[in-house]
């Protein structure tokens, strides 16, 4: 049974991926800065007959990473680097401490945690690392400089690590979804509808999904299914790749 460590698993994409992967018989280590949120996700998985535990983890802290991994009976076979946050502002008024935090969580933190789990993966002779990037790993939007820079950075990081792990059965890839239907996106829809004075359905069709020819939000099962495939023996030669799950956005 693969042990899957997911960061930022207390809500949103991380929680959705955790629930989906638990349904495939994997043991889930749901980690989050908010331990109570991670515990709620793990408890829900166990209530559904799955296997899960919760872990307090701050990817920006070397001490937190070491302590969290020290609590595990064994290291993860699969690491899903998902923890993230957003801040929207023109660069001239972007607080640099927020800029630094976004990069610390979504890029440096990924390197920190990956570095910590790699020795165990090499020792066991197997490892799968999946970075949850974004459509913004590939294209840009205004006022999201820190987020876009961090997510672009994941692509380069994955390519380097693919080369550094090439002699072991370890792979690293970056998933790049466009809008995923999460509670955060639901709130954005409501906020934009109010600020633009248009119905929520119009926000969805004409603002959010307009760049996606498929015209549909990405669902958790699509991300989890891709992670499950990348974790399988069939994907042993897929490494250093950037997989756009974007409804055709970047095909245009």
Automatic annotation (TrEMBL):
GO terms (BP aspect): monocarboxylic acid metabolic process
Gene3D superfamilies: NAD(P)-binding Rossmann-like Domain
Alphabetical list of InterPro entries matching this protein: 3-OHbutyrate_DH, NAD(P)-bd_dom_sf, Sc_DH/Rdtase_CS, SDR, SDR_fam
Protein origin, superkingdom: Bacteria
GO molecular function list: 3-hydroxybutyrate dehydrogenase activity
One Pfam family hit: adh_short_C2
Family the UniProt entry places it in: Belongs to the short-chain dehydrogenases/reductases (SDR) family.
NCBIfam families referenced in this protein's UniProt entry, alphabetically: PHB_DH (TIGR01963), PRK12429.1 (NF009093)
Protein name per UniProt: 3-hydroxybutyrate dehydrogenase
Source species of the chain: Stenotrophomonas panacihumi
